[in-house]
């Protein structure tokens, strides 16, 4: 097995083919699984409740939101049990927020490793998304068990894989953007958790997006999570509203932009990573 | 034999200005803003940033490494050794120039890179193996071998954070040594670990080399380099100073940086005798380091100004602690060392067999019968002795001061 690693000055490196990059990532896929495996192992080592935490967190959140928005504020949930209504949104939200924050910090946290060994750097933020996918899966199973108690399974449930894929793309897109930015500017370590708190309220997690007035809804959809959360709620409960399709299309578009832009910026930063980290 | 590594005019620049490196968003934004406003106001002072400190870690570096070579990379701190290793292992990219590496590279720039403290020894073998480029199958196949080499079989299920630093180090080396790369890059990792494990590492590296792995080895320990390498590359201020046999490179290295010790030159003595030079040589080649089967000649240049037969010229050999291990004296009335006036040379033949590998100093002494010294300075040269053969790691690490060499015969 002989391969040739060939590289030259920066100018030609920027033009280095995307195809080679993807091939390389593919070649290192085993290391990718190892990183996911490591992070899963580490996450619940020396934790008494272990993987149960994957369930406890969203359930606590769900109870809190149900209490505040459902019981106190009496917001409508389109005749769905308010707890389930919130949990359906909590699924993609939890995946997005944890994965993005962790992926964003991942490169800086692994600076030691990055300055000593070579492998495609993309694996590190991507692995953090893989780990959170496990938590997501656990919550999803819980949700699917609870669902028939309050509602029926719908055919629209078949759209879930597409929605999960879209969420993952969003996570990876924003994750690698933040990872690369954090390498350059540590400010993002502080900004991101703050925006995540904020983001939970500008996304329809605790309430339904149908509450947004029409003239605002056009802009509201620019938050890619709006389309995704609406999509999940539609898939689980088959509840539609006038802006549903528009929201999903805008979300897909913005997610793709974010993802492609992230890849470009990450590739650019990757070259200088060991020097500036 | 084919070329495995080729570097052409490779340069690497580091910018030490605050703009690159550890920055905050505000710094960058204000910098950009200031530049933009300056441009708008029509001020053409182009450079508003503080003077940029540039550091060329490597400058127009050309080198070639052939398949199967064991190359020792020499150079002082800051000569660019680590930068070169980073470039070869693709951690960073050159500012300009061209690097070509054929085959799989495993770099051991630091022992235990990528270990996760919370994970057990077993888990870390898999993780670290994968980081260094092994497949899961490969790791599973070599697992027992790695554990045995690291001598941690009983600790496989203990988190690495509970390991002693020796165990940690051994495990790190063991994994990297089993990667089976085409090019193995090793950076001063042997400096840690006990003597017997160091010997084991060297043996393993020799074995890998015999199996066709090309090795690039960086160490400040000239002994380890002499033991392991057959080729040398000497870096100085980011440029290749010498490339070739390891012995020549070490010679140049020693001459350049230890010249004050390589040979003493000066003028010392009294009205009757003056000393000008004290040096070590082997076959007329001035050297400082010898194998333990070499003949070491101690050369003294002196001048007799006035015939006088009552002083004693001598040599003392001391170890690094200053302890005198042996001495030898010429009594002036014995041989014709001082029977005529003029510049003379005395040569003392020393047998390398008597030394354990290590560093010594050879001191010149010249005493009057009253035991007062004729010379006012401490005149000495450093003597470094290496073992020609790899020492059997099973032997006890000898606490003796002198060695008897290998004088055994069977009859």
Throw out a few tags for this protein.
heterodimer; A: about 280 residues; mainly alpha; 12 helices; about 75% helix; B: about 400 residues; alpha/beta; Rossmann fold; Coagulation Factor XIII, Chain A, domain 1; 3 domains; six-stranded mixed sheet; five-stranded antiparallel sheet; 9 helices; globular
Q: How would you portray this structure in words?
A:
The complex is a heterodimer of chains A (about 280) and B (about 400). Chain A is an all-alpha fold and about 280 residues long. Chain A has one domain (about 15-275). Helix content of chain A is about 75%, strand content about 0%. Chain A has twelve helices and one strand; from the N terminus they run E-H-H-H-H-H-H-H-H-H-H-H-H. In chain A, helix 5 crosses helix 11 (about 225-235) and helix 7 (about 125-150) packs antiparallel against helix 8. The longest helix of chain A is centred in the C-terminal third of the chain and has 33 residues, at about 245-275. Mean pLDDT of chain A is about 85; it is low at about 1-15. In chain B, helix 3 (about 120-130) packs across helix 4, helix 3 (about 120-130) packs across helix 5 (about 165-175) and helix 5 runs parallel beside helix 6. Chain B has nine helices and 19 strands. Helix content of chain B is about 25%, strand content about 35%. Chain B folds into three domains: about 15-50, no CATH class; about 60-255, Rossmann fold; about 260-385, Coagulation Factor XIII, Chain A, domain 1 (Distorted Sandwich). The model of chain B has no long low-confidence stretch (mean pLDDT about 80). With about 400 residues, chain B is of the alpha/beta class. The longest helix of chain B is centred in the N-terminal third of the chain and has 16 residues, at about 25-40. The radius of gyration of chain B is 28 Å and the shape is globular. A six-stranded mixed β-sheet of chain B has the order 5-6-7-3-8-9, sandwiched between helices. In chain B, strands 10, 11, 12, 14 and 17 form a five-stranded antiparallel β-sheet that branches. In chain B, strands 13-19-18-15-16 form a five-stranded mixed β-sheet. At the A-B interface, strand 1, helix 3, helix 6 and helix 12 of A face helix 1, strand 4 and helix 3 of B.
């Amino acid at each position: 097995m002989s391969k040739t690693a060939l590289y030259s000055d920066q100018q030609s490196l920027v033009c280095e083919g995307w195809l080679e990059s993807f091939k390389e990532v593919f070649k290192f896929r085993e290391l990718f699984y190892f990183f996911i495996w490591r992070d899963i192992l580490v996450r619940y080592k020396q934790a008494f409740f272990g993987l149960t935490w994957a369930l406890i967190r969203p359930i606590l959140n769900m109870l809190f939101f149900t209490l505040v928005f459902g019981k106190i504020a009496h917001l409508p949930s389109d005749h769905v049990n308010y707890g389930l209504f919130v949990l359906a949104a909590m699924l993609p939200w939890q995946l997005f927020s944890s994965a993005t924050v962790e992926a964003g910090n991942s490169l800086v946290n692994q600076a030691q490793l990055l300055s000593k060994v070579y492998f495609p750097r993309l694996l590190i933020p991507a692995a953090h998304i893989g780990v959170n996918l496990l938590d997501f899966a656990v919550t999803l199973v819980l949700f699917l068990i609870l669902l028939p108690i309050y509602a029926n399974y719908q055919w629209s449930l078949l759209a879930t894989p597409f929605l999960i894929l879209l969420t993952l793309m969003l996570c990876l897109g924003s994750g690698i953007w933040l990872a690369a930015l954090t390498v350059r500017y540590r400010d993002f370590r502080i900004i991101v958790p703050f925006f995540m708190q904020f983001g939970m309220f500008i996304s329809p997690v605790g309430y339904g997006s149908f509450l947004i007035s029409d003239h605002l809804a056009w802009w509201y959809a620019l938050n890619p999570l709006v389309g995704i959360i609406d999509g999940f709620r539609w898939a689980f409960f088959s509840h539609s509203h006038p802006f549903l399709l528009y929201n999903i299309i805008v979300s897909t578009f913005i997610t793709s932009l974010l993802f492609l832009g992230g890849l470009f910026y990450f590739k650019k930063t990757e070259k200088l990573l060991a020097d500036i980290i | 034999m084919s070329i495995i590594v080729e570097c052409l005019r490779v340069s690497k620049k580091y910018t030490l200005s605050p703009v690159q490196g550890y920055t905050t968003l505000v710094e960058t934004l204000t910098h950009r803003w200031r530049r933009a406003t300056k441009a708008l106001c029509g001020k053409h002072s182009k450079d508003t940033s503080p003077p940029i400190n540039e550091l060329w870690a490597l400058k127009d570096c050309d080198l070639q490494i052939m398949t199967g070579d064991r190359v020792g990379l020499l150079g002082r701190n800051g000569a660019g050794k680590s930068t070169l290793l980073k470039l070869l292992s693709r951690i960073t990219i050159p500012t300009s120039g061209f690097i070509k590496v054929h085959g799989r590279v495993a770099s051991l720039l630091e022992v235990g890179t990528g270990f996760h403290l919370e994970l057990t020894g077993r888990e870390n073998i898999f993780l670290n193996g994968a980081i260094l480029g092994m497949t899961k199958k490969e790791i599973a196949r070599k697992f027992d071998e790695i554990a045995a080499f690291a001598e941690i079989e009983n600790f496989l299920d203990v988190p690495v954070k509970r390991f002693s630093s020796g165990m940690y180090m051994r495990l790190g080396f063991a994994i990297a040594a089993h990667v089976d790369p085409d090019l193995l890059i090793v950076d001063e990792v042997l400096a840690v670990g006990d003597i017997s494990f160091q010997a084991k590492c060297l043996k393993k590296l020799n074995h890998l080399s015999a199996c066709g792995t090309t090795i690039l080895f960086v160490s400040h320990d000239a002994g380890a380099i002499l033991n392991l390498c057959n080729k040398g590359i000497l870096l100085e201020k980011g440029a290749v100073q010498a490339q070739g046999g390891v012995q020549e490179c070490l010679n140049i290295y020693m001459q350049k940086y230890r010249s004050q010790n390589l040979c003493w030159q000066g003028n010392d003595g009294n009205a009757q005798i003056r000393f000008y030079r004290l040096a070590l040589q082997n076959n007329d080649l001035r050297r400082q380091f010898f194998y333990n089967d070499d003949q070491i000649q101690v050369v003294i240049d002196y001048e007799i100004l006035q015939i006088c037969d009552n002083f004693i010229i001598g040599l003392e050999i001391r170890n690094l602690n200053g302890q005198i291990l042996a001495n030898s004296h010429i009594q002036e009335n014995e041989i014709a060392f001082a029977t005529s006036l003029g510049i003379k040379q005395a040569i003392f033949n020393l047998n390398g067999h008597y030394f354990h590998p290590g560093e010594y100093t050879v001191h010149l002494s010249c005493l009057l019968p009253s035991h007062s010294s004729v010379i006012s300075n401490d005149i000495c040269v450093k003597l470094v002795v290496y073992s020609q053969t790899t020492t059997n790691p099973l032997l006890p690490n000898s606490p003796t001061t002198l060695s008897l060499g290998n004088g055994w015969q069977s009859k």
